[in-house]
Structures are given as structure tokens and as C-alpha cells.
């Protein structure tokens, strides 16, 4: 069965520092991959997604993620953290259009002043 | 604002009761998805409807049911409620027929507390 693992339920970085949120998927067939962000008391918002083509995907708010098939990873990065990035981030995967989407447990990102 | 609306925002009820959660998708979106978010289970996909028809089913309990109406709004019915059903229930919508590959737009959620 497909699964999505996010390493670290909480990550703290200083403002201006690199943000790295890790996501690994388990699948015999490379899936389609997503990162969503959830701000407090709000629903999820898509940051970026990988379907086909370029493995480095750029999203909103300066985030990007790279699909690495050999490592079964889709880590999310941002060069310089901002206080407004404090939120919970979810990695998700789906095998095909007719499959159900599987979410990771989420990583709460804390930004230190 | 995603354009997806959910009512009510909060719901407090007792075990054994039945509740209905309502979702209005973004204008023009044909697909509606329901999710349950809880501390222990995380975010779980429950069910998807596309233009009134059930499209995909996830970890939805038999006590739960959903439907999508001709005006495309959707309702999630939760019956014989248990303490463990306390969670945040999200609705999301997307525009076309590409299923799970599409960008989903999430509503603000309905927080259900079962006492």
C-alpha cells in the first residue's frame, strides 16, 4: 500500500534560514506528489505539485520541491524563512487520477525570530 | 479565501446523534472531496463526488454517507456518532475530471465535537 512519510512532526528554523521539510513516499509506481500548507484555523492550500516533466517544481511563496525517484523523496525547501511561513505542511501522493490521495502526518514549521 | 464554503463552522453534539455537514464548492467546480482531520489519524480522505456521482472512496465508515446534489453542493452525514468521530471535517473542490491529480481548493472546515 502506498504511504507518505514526513520526517519530523515539528521543525524550527530561524527567520532568514533555509527551510527543509522532508517527505518520502513508498510506491512501486512513481506517484504524483503534492505539498499543501495549512495556516492556523484554515483549510489546506496547494503550494506545489509534481505530475510529469521537470523534477524541480516551483510553488507559491518562494517554495520549491524536487522529485528524486532514486531516493523516493519530494523534499520541500525555501532559501530564506519568513515569519509568515509558520504553518503546518502536508506532503501528499496519488498513483493516478482514479486513486485516492494519501497525506503524510504533517510537519509543523516554527519560525524563530 | 478559497471560494469553498462549509457550514456550520462548529458543531457540538452527543454520542449516538446524527449530524449533517454542508459544503458549497467553488463556482464551476464539479468535484467535491471530503476529508477528516484528527490528531491521531491525521488527514484522511473520505469520499469524492464528481457531478453528482460517487467517484472515489477512501476510509469512510459505514455510519457516514455523503451525496452531491444537482446544484453541486454536497452534504456529509455522520450518524451514530462516537467520541472518536470528533475531528475537523474538510470539504475541497476541483474543477474538472482529472480526479486526484487536480488542485483541490479547501474550505475552512467544520469542527465537530462529540460529547
Topology:
The complex is a heterodimer of chains A (113) and B (115).
Chain A: E1 3-7, E2 10-14, E3 19-26, E4 32-38, E5 44-50, E6 56-58, E7 64-68, E8 73-78, E9 87-94, E10 102-103, E11 107-112
Parallel strand pairs in A: 2-11
Antiparallel strand pairs in A: 1-3, 3-8, 4-5, 4-9, 6-7, 7-8, 9-10, 9-11
Chain B: E1 5-7, E2 10-13, E3 19-24, E4 31-38, E5 42-50, E6 53-57, E7 64-68, E8 74-78, E9 87-94, E10 105-106, E11 110-114
Parallel strand pairs in B: 2-11
Antiparallel strand pairs in B: 1-3, 3-8, 4-5, 4-9, 5-6, 7-8, 9-10, 9-11
Task: Describe the structure in your own words.
- The complex is a heterodimer of chains A (113) and B (115).
- In chain A, strands 2, 4, 5, 9, 10 and 11 form a six-stranded mixed sheet that branches. A five-stranded antiparallel sheet of chain A has the order 1-3-8-7-6, with no helix packed on it.
- Chain A starts with a strand and ends with a strand.
- With 113 residues, chain A is an all-beta fold.
- Chain A has no helices and eleven strands.
- Chain A is globular, with a radius of gyration of 13 Å.
- By secondary structure, chain B is mostly beta strands.
- Chain B contains no helices and eleven strands.
- In chain B, the strands form two sheets. In chain B, strands 2, 4, 5, 6, 9, 10 and 11 form a seven-stranded mixed sheet that branches.
